[in-house]
Amino acid sequence: MPLYVVADTHFGHANLLGPRMARPRPFASIEAHDEYLIARWNDRVRPDDEVWHLGDFAYGASAAHCRAVFARLAGRKRLVWGNHDASRVRDLPWESQHERVEISARGRTFVLSHYAQRTWNKAHY
């Protein structure tokens, strides 16, 4: 079963497209942005695949929009909280939620966090 890791999708975050961003995302509208990300996600992820979202799933989107996007995304979705993951994101039916987590895959241990880490468990391996 494949395992995927993604972060900072920022569904519904219209300011990602504008001049306030150092590197604005190249979409005509936030709806086009969201549709593009959903299509790319579902092109790759199958229903039984495991997906770890490392925070900032959505920003500025309504709870209804968050639920609608979440429902369209394939896979068994797990969340590691980011700084923009308010209750509208945390209340979604994730398989699990974490502030930071260690997982094992392919014989290795990975530390998953939204935030950059100076050090972490087993960093010297």
Write up what this structure looks like.
This protein is an alpha/beta fold and 125 residues long. It has one domain: Metallo-dependent phosphatases (Purple Acid Phosphatase, chain A, domain 2). The chain is 23% helix and 21% strand. It is built from 3 helices and 6 strands. It has a 4-stranded parallel sheet with strand order 1-2-3-4, with no helix packed on it. A two-stranded antiparallel ribbon has the order 5-6. A hairpin with a 2-residue loop joins β5 (101-105) and β6. The radius of gyration is 15 Å and the shape is globular. It starts with a strand and ends in a 13-residue tail after the last strand.
Structural class: alpha/beta
- State the distance separating the first and last CA atoms: 25 Å
Shape descriptor: globular
Sequence of secondary-structure elements = EHEHEHEEE
Name of the top-level CATH class: Alpha Beta
- How many helices? The count is 3
Quick one: biggest sheet? 4 strands, parallel
Indicate the low-confidence ranges by residue numbers.
Answer: none
Number of strands: 6
Number of domains: 1
Secondary structure: helix percent = 10-25%
Radius of gyration: 15 Å
InterPro entries: Calcineurin-like_PHP_lpxH, Metallo-depent_PP-like
Protein name: Metallophosphoesterase
Pfam families: Metallophos_2
Domain Calcineurin-like phosphoesterase: 1-116
Tags for this model:
125 residues, alpha/beta, Purple Acid Phosphatase, chain A, domain 2, two-stranded antiparallel ribbon, 3 helices
Summarize the structure.
23% of the residues lie in helices and 21% in strands. The chain is built from three helices and six strands; from the N terminus they run E-H-E-H-E-H-E-E-E.
